[in-house]
Design goal:
Length: 122
Protein backbone atom coordinates (compact mmCIF):
# COMPACT_ATOMS: atom_id res chain seq x y z
CA UNK A 1 0.00 0.00 0.00
CA UNK A 2 2.75 2.44 0.82
CA UNK A 3 4.30 2.12 -2.60
CA UNK A 4 1.01 3.08 -4.30
CA UNK A 5 0.66 5.99 -1.88
CA UNK A 6 4.19 7.24 -2.48
CA UNK A 7 3.78 6.68 -6.22
CA UNK A 8 0.65 8.83 -6.13
CA UNK A 9 2.54 11.56 -4.27
CA UNK A 10 5.33 11.38 -6.84
CA UNK A 11 2.87 11.63 -9.73
CA UNK A 12 1.25 14.70 -8.17
CA UNK A 13 4.65 16.28 -7.52
CA UNK A 14 5.67 15.76 -11.13
CA UNK A 15 2.36 17.22 -12.29
CA UNK A 16 2.15 20.24 -9.98
CA UNK A 17 5.73 20.82 -8.84
CA UNK A 18 4.50 21.46 -5.29
CA UNK A 19 5.51 19.11 -2.49
CA UNK A 20 2.74 20.29 -0.16
CA UNK A 21 0.01 19.85 -2.77
CA UNK A 22 1.43 16.46 -3.78
CA UNK A 23 1.28 15.10 -0.22
CA UNK A 24 -2.22 16.51 0.29
CA UNK A 25 -3.58 15.09 -2.97
CA UNK A 26 -1.78 11.76 -2.55
CA UNK A 27 -3.32 11.21 0.86
CA UNK A 28 -6.73 12.42 -0.33
CA UNK A 29 -6.76 9.92 -3.21
CA UNK A 30 -5.26 6.89 -1.46
CA UNK A 31 -6.16 7.41 2.22
CA UNK A 32 -9.52 5.67 1.89
CA UNK A 33 -7.94 2.65 0.20
CA UNK A 34 -5.25 2.38 2.87
CA UNK A 35 -7.82 2.67 5.67
CA UNK A 36 -10.19 0.15 4.07
CA UNK A 37 -7.41 -2.37 3.49
CA UNK A 38 -6.23 -1.94 7.07
CA UNK A 39 -9.76 -2.39 8.38
CA UNK A 40 -10.21 -5.62 6.42
CA UNK A 41 -6.97 -7.08 7.77
CA UNK A 42 -7.85 -5.94 11.31
CA UNK A 43 -11.19 -7.75 11.03
CA UNK A 44 -9.50 -10.89 9.76
CA UNK A 45 -7.09 -10.95 12.70
CA UNK A 46 -9.94 -9.95 15.00
CA UNK A 47 -11.68 -13.22 14.16
CA UNK A 48 -8.68 -15.03 15.65
CA UNK A 49 -9.72 -13.58 19.02
CA UNK A 50 -12.92 -15.63 18.87
CA UNK A 51 -10.91 -18.84 19.08
CA UNK A 52 -11.01 -20.80 22.34
CA UNK A 53 -7.22 -21.22 22.17
CA UNK A 54 -5.35 -18.57 24.14
CA UNK A 55 -2.41 -18.46 21.70
CA UNK A 56 -4.63 -17.63 18.71
CA UNK A 57 -6.42 -14.96 20.75
CA UNK A 58 -3.12 -13.31 21.63
CA UNK A 59 -1.80 -13.49 18.09
CA UNK A 60 -5.04 -12.08 16.72
CA UNK A 61 -5.06 -9.20 19.21
CA UNK A 62 -1.39 -8.38 18.65
CA UNK A 63 -1.65 -8.46 14.87
CA UNK A 64 -4.86 -6.38 14.87
CA UNK A 65 -3.17 -3.69 16.98
CA UNK A 66 -0.05 -3.79 14.80
CA UNK A 67 -2.08 -3.38 11.60
CA UNK A 68 -4.07 -0.53 13.16
CA UNK A 69 -0.86 1.29 14.12
CA UNK A 70 0.60 0.68 10.67
CA UNK A 71 -2.48 1.71 8.68
CA UNK A 72 -3.52 4.72 10.74
CA UNK A 73 -0.50 6.06 12.57
CA UNK A 74 2.33 5.23 10.18
CA UNK A 75 0.72 5.47 6.75
CA UNK A 76 -1.80 8.25 7.39
CA UNK A 77 0.16 10.41 9.86
CA UNK A 78 3.91 9.74 9.91
CA UNK A 79 4.56 9.20 6.19
CA UNK A 80 2.69 12.35 5.06
CA UNK A 81 4.36 14.41 7.79
CA UNK A 82 7.82 13.14 6.87
CA UNK A 83 7.22 13.72 3.16
CA UNK A 84 5.96 17.23 3.92
CA UNK A 85 8.97 18.06 6.09
CA UNK A 86 11.55 16.63 3.68
CA UNK A 87 10.05 18.40 0.68
CA UNK A 88 12.21 17.98 -2.42
CA UNK A 89 14.79 16.02 -0.43
CA UNK A 90 12.34 13.14 -0.16
CA UNK A 91 13.04 12.46 -3.85
CA UNK A 92 16.83 12.84 -3.74
CA UNK A 93 18.81 9.98 -5.25
CA UNK A 94 22.59 9.68 -5.62
CA UNK A 95 23.72 10.50 -9.16
CA UNK A 96 25.53 7.16 -9.56
CA UNK A 97 22.35 5.25 -8.72
CA UNK A 98 20.11 7.51 -10.81
CA UNK A 99 22.28 6.94 -13.88
CA UNK A 100 21.98 3.15 -13.52
CA UNK A 101 18.20 3.02 -13.09
CA UNK A 102 15.99 3.00 -16.17
CA UNK A 103 13.75 5.97 -16.78
CA UNK A 104 10.19 4.71 -17.12
CA UNK A 105 7.49 7.12 -18.19
CA UNK A 106 4.52 5.12 -19.41
CA UNK A 107 2.09 8.01 -19.73
CA UNK A 108 4.36 10.07 -21.98
CA UNK A 109 4.36 7.43 -24.71
CA UNK A 110 2.16 8.25 -27.66
CA UNK A 111 -0.60 5.71 -28.15
CA UNK A 112 -0.11 3.62 -31.23
CA UNK A 113 -2.88 3.25 -33.74
CA UNK A 114 -4.85 0.09 -33.16
CA UNK A 115 -5.45 -1.79 -36.39
CA UNK A 116 -9.05 -2.18 -37.36
CA UNK A 117 -10.27 -5.72 -38.11
CA UNK A 118 -10.51 -4.87 -41.80
CA UNK A 119 -6.85 -3.75 -41.81
CA UNK A 120 -5.76 -7.07 -40.36
CA UNK A 121 -7.44 -9.10 -43.06
CA UNK A 122 -5.76 -7.32 -45.88
Amino acid sequence: MTDSYVSRIHEERERTGSDEAAVREGLAHTGAVITAAGLIVILIFGVFMLSPQRLLQQIGFGMAIAIFVDAVVIRCLVVPAAMQLMGRWAWWMPAALASRLPSLNLEAATPSRVAEPADRLG
